Amino acid sequence: MDWILDDRTDCWSVMTNLSVRDYLELVKEAHENQGGLSGQREVLKTTTARRIRDRTVADIRKGALLPPVVIGMVVPHSTFETFPMETAESLAEIVGGPESMTLSIIDGMQRTGAIMEAAKTDSSVLDHIVRVEFWLAEHVSSMIYRMLVLNTGQVPWTLSRQLSVVYTPLLKEVRKNVPEIEKIFTPESPGRRVAAAQYGSDVLVELYLAFSLRKTNIDSKEALSEEFSRLDVVDNLSSTGFQEHFYTTLGILARLDKAFSRYESASKDRFSKGRHIFDSQPARIGFMAASAQTVLGRPGLDKDDKERARRMAKLKEGADALIDKLNRMKPDKIGEFLALDVLAEIVSKRVGQVGRYERAVFFDAFKVLIDEDFELPTMEPCWRAN
Q1: pTM score, whole prediction
Q2: Which of 28, 69, 123, 125 could form a disulfide with 119 if both were Cys (CB 3.0 to 4.6 A apart)?
């Protein structure tokens, strides 16, 4: 195994050769145990793509050596500290068995599909050799950074699709770093939000995007041909403390969610309970984007790391004070503070592109709350800001 340290992302690049049999077994285990292939783009289906794929399958059966597949792995700190393990003879010696691996194919999904197809039609392919490059990282941010840079210029992906490839380790870090979140729903463990601080995995990926891009209008289906968006995410990931700022902000959102939810009402209106505010994805995105602009700076007007840390501390201090204040209030007083009747009136306006309108309403609302250091008698000035 050939080990090289990437000083830029603090990742180890390990180049090795595996038999097709071992490689497919590794991929199979990763998929079954961690959903490691979830989010990868489907095999291309155009006529030319199918022809190229058929030619690739035929070449594999004839013994063609494909370019290396790149697999990303997030490993615990204790394991990362033991690298490089230049005398190791197998991946299991480095990171343990398949059950402990969190793998993501960050480059080579199409090749993997072709290898699988070739092996199904010709069992002798299982004895062929496939070159694999493992990127071993301690933090998911390093993996996301590496993936976005690596895939620049390829068939455009949406940002959310790219992030979904590494969503398993991202969610793992969210669970570890944001204990305020009570429950995360995933495709493997579905559910419906019935209380505060419960969110779907797709919701969290979109909130990560909103925080990274510092804007509310995120079209998750839009291809990543918008190079400025890619650049913003890459620049943020390269910034010291960015990932921690995201986790801190997400924790504040979850705590506000819990504090708001103390207000209950018998009404069946859309915004009759405190919890209903963050039941709304536009509200969650509005809060994350407003916080991101405050901490990171406007897109194209980035703050340096020291200033970001200062702004994050100030935002957290204001939010903590408001949350403490709400937690000491009686529920009916929380209802008065939230001014939900005003919010309901604002969002009930008949407008085109309702989702875009509501995101703008909540972004402006939370921007006011943050700009006023969370010191307001009620939320009415927030709701009326748009």
Answers
A1: 0.68
A2: 125
